[in-house]
Amino acid sequence: MSDSKPNSHNHDGHSHDHHHDHSHWSDMDLKVKTLESLLVEKGYVDPAALDVIVETYETKVGPRNGAAVVAKAWSDENYLEHLRENATEAIAELGFSGRQGEHMQIVENTADRHNMVVCTLCSCYPWSVLGLPPVWYKSAPYRSRAVIEPRAVLSEFGVKLPQDTKITVWDSTAEMRYLVIPQRPEGTQGWSEIKLAELVTRDSMIGTGLALSPDEISS
Fold first, then answer.
1. Is pLDDT above 60 for 75?
2. Residue-wise burial string across 45-78, b where 16 or more C-beta atoms lie within 10 A, e elsewhere
3. Mind listing the pLDDT tens digit for each residue in 118-149?
4. 187-190 — which CB contacts under 8 Å span 24+ positions?
């Protein structure tokens, strides 16, 4: 089965204009870089410590919101249905909303389909549920290769999928941002939402990873 590629006008039947409101990104990036350089120059900030802080917000603090959404979706069929109908509203009900969190849509991984998210023109990303975007998400190689050879890119992230698993790549825009609902791992029946959330990683909600197995958090 062939892998599905993103289309600037149609994603598996979901049509929308591919307009990216990225005018604020360059200005913001410049301000952040200038401030960072100034603080480092004056000795107020240790670059290594700053890297640790950024990494923490990228991989731990921010993604906890999305993990809570996924865990509830795994546990509550009514909530999952609400996510399907109006993801922005359903996510906001858990207290996660704001800039970069508008116009949300979920895509669900299944046994025969894997979803992956990219932003081909800039770096549209759902900050309200995933925190800061990782550096690789904004890189030109990822933005281009995820479209052309998604299976190879996934393999480099350590995700090996059966050849008959279809891969759909979703292109985020200012009008639509995606949250992947990974497959719920086996052996988690009866688990609380809090415990389930421990299985959900940032990469699994972008589609460049899978949810952890129970053994991975108990070891």
1. yes
2. beeeeeeeeeeeebbeebbbbbbbbbbbbbbeee
3. 999 877 888 889 988 888 999 999 999 999 99
4. 187/213, 187/214, 188/74, 188/214
Does 15 have pLDDT greater than 50? no
Per-residue confidence (pLDDT) for residue 48, from 0 to 100? 78
The model's pTM is 0.76
Spatial separation of the C-alpha atoms in residues 55 and 59, rounded to whole Å: 6
**64 CB-side CA count, 13 A:** 8
Reference 206, options 133, 113, 128; nearest CA is: 133
The CA–CA distances, whole Å, from 48 to 45, 54, 60, 193, 208 equal 9, 10, 18, 35, 26
Q: Are 130 and 209 in contact (CB under 8 A)?
A: no
> Thinking of the domain 62-218, which architecture would CATH place it in?
Alpha-Beta Complex (3.90)
User: Hey, which residues are catalytic here?
Assistant: 119, 122-124
Closest CA to 165 of 98, 210, 120, 218: 210
Domain ranges of the chain: 62-218
Q: Cα separation of 179 and 202, whole Å? A: 10
Angle at 161 between CA 159 and CA 166, to 5 degrees: 120
For residue 39, the 8-state DSSP code is H
Residue 133: count other Cβ atoms within 10 Å of its Cβ: 19
DSSP 4: B
